[in-house]
Amino acid sequence: MLKQFFICLAGVLLTYAVIAQQNETMEAGMGKVKVSFLIDQNGSPVYQVLFDNRPVILSSHLGFVLNTDSTFYKDFELTGSEKNSFDETWQPVWGEVKDIRNNYEQLIVHLKQKNSGLLLNVIFRAFEDGIGFRYEFPKQDGLKYFIVTDELTQFHMAGDHKTFWIPGDFDTNEYPYTESKLSMIDNSELVKNSTAIAVRVAPDKYAVQTPLMMKSDDGLYINIHEAALTNYPAMQLHVDKATNTFTSSLVPDAVGNKAYLHAPCSTPWRTIIVSDKATNILSSKLILNLNEPSKITNTTWIKPMKFVGVWWEMQTGKSTWNYSDFADSVDANGKPIPNHRHGANTANVKRYIDFAASNGIDGVLVEGWNTGWEDWFGNWKENVFDFVTPYPDFDMKEITAYAALKNVKLIMHNETSGSATNYERQMDTAFRFMTMNGYHAVKTGYVGKIIPRGEHHDGQWMINHYVRVAEKAAQYNVMLDAHEPVRPTGLQRTYPNWLACEAARGNEYNAFSDGNAPSHETILPFTRLMGGPMDYTPGIFKLKNYTTVPNRQVHTTLAKQLALYVTLYSPLQMAADLPENYEAHKDAFQFIRDVPLNWDDTKIVEAEPGSYITIARKEKGTGNWFIGAITNEKARTAIIPLTFLEKGKKYIATIYSDSTDTDWKNNPETYQITQVLVAQGKNLKIKLAPGGGAAIAVRPIEFPDNKKLPAKN
Known about the structure:
Layout lengths: L1 H21 L3 E5 L2 E7 L5 E7 L2 E8 L2 E3 L9 E15 L9 E14 L5 E9 L2 E8 L7 E7 L2 E4 L4 E4 L12 E4 L6 H6 L6 E3 L2 E5 L2 E4 L5 E7 L7 E6 L4 E6 L8 E4 L2 E2 L2 E7 L2 H6 L2 H4 L15 E5 L1 H5 L30 H13 L4 E3 L30 H10 L3 E7 L4 H17 L2 E7 L14 H16 L3 E4 L15 E4 L7 H4 L7 H4 L34 H10 L4 E3 L4 H5 L2 H9 L4 E10 L3 E8 L5 E7 L4 E6 L8 E9 L12 E9 L3 E6 L4 E9 L12
Parallel strand pairs: 23-24, 23-29, 24-25, 25-26, 26-27, 27-28
Antiparallel strand pairs: 1-2, 2-3, 3-4, 4-11, 5-10, 6-7, 7-8, 8-9, 9-21, 9-22, 10-20, 11-19, 12-13, 12-16, 14-15, 15-18, 16-17, 17-22, 18-19, 30-31, 31-32, 32-37, 33-36, 34-35, 34-37
């Protein structure tokens, strides 16, 4: 009996030892950031995140619902773990800085579900500015081809944070941002009024999109997004306001499934960037570091570009994309009758080429050049465009020769009207046509319902499509600017020819709607731009009376439009206004001519989401610095310590700023240009008008202190 007792006791102790091992907390950390992992009593994977010993993410569950296993979130056991560190410095092909340090501690946990025997790994990487984690399905006999029905990743926030959010939507992210407490997120009215498919799952549970920016009451800045989104749908977040918890919600396909996978495979990274300084959020390179290195070996042909084009005159109604006003406006032979307002005509495009050539602008974008615009929007037609047939008034050969003569590059426009299958069938034809005619960059568009029918802009099928386009463009040495796509997740590192995306509410909304609030551009860097550059189309100079719609105006000052070239980063920047509006302000336009697109260094001087941003950037290969400062509807003084300037050198700062009487609402187009001598250790104090900004060019000079300053531009 005594022997049996000790045998039983040994078994109990062994059981408790196994339980203790399973419930052991494993950690990875870097600097002030720490992520911990354990398996709870139900066998569910759980993680937490701390910053400086302050809670960021409380205990949050991980897991899935699979078509083969509806409980792939519990009954796991730990089969092993490993920890290692990594430190490298790499150089992007283009970007905000010359060198990027990729330094993290990695924890990999190996899990096995007890009953099914299925395997799952969770990989955590802790950086000094946050964490990334992803799921990995190893190669295994019990799981080959499978369907993800739901991903159950949680983000249990430590408080009812201030949140900058847009509503969940499978097909668009072009919403104005709402600033509210997490508990006040309620997009029911937005959903009701939306023409797209927005998601409300329960009376107290709403969907929001990432990147999601938050600020805690005790001053922590927290950003949730994802990195390296390939072969998987975009992640939205459902909020449980009662518990301050977000749960991942994947965009479904036409039959409601989320992802079709084949093990071995991995999901995108889920990212949490955190700091007690807002400036550190904008400085983070965590998302880029979680992407794979460039798949393009020879990148010498990839060049950042500044461009002009016929786009704004179409947005404001001066001209049209289509050749005839209406689809039935035809002559007796059935041919379209010109409406004399078609923007992409030979003479008009040559006018833009002349303007670009005379102002040192790299390229000209031409939209509406090809047939099909009479019947293209949202009609679910598969073969609207063929991408090679110009309208009768667009002489491709003449324009191509004229641009080459003027040393101006042409940018192709491929609007798909949402018919991705049609575009994929013709991609080789389209890209051959581009290279034959001297177009080495393309702006793609996906307005309308997606074909294949029932697929969504942010679903797995389209995610793969966007990558296929980037890969095809790279085969033909063509750079890519995608409009109406999924929001970016750092893939510009892997495909550096993918220079920019739209994927948010851009400047165009000032043309055909009530516009963007003065705070909008102070929110975008903390949200949409966390994943990659945005083609925002800045540089509007005529801020009122640019359309026949009464009382329509751009909600910024002219000086702020200049500052956006620095604060809203993109290697592909449009001078979006009409040439005649720039001719009326040649002195201010000088900043657009001068501001670079590629940088050796970037300093986030000051920032607060929704309020203000000041950024200084060093031009690649020179000693020149360019500074942009913007504010919301409140006037403020930007204080800019010039600590980044080289010690012992003198610089001249050309300051493009609001005038004393400037106001975005009543007097937006007034500005002043001043020049001052500056040096390291000095501070610039610039007054920003309501809705205003300032743009500053700082260049080293070599002349005695008593010599007069150069005349202003």
